[in-house]
Amino acid sequence: MKLKLNPWPPALFLWFAFLIIVCIGFVIKTTKMNNDLVSKDYYARGLDHDAHQIAMSRTKQLENPPRIEMDEVNQRLIIYLPEIAKGAKLDLYRPSDAGLDIHDIVLQDGVPSVLSTQAIHPGHWQAKIAWKDEKHSYFHQEDLFIP
Question: Would you say residue 90 lies in a domain?
Answer without folding.
Answer: yes
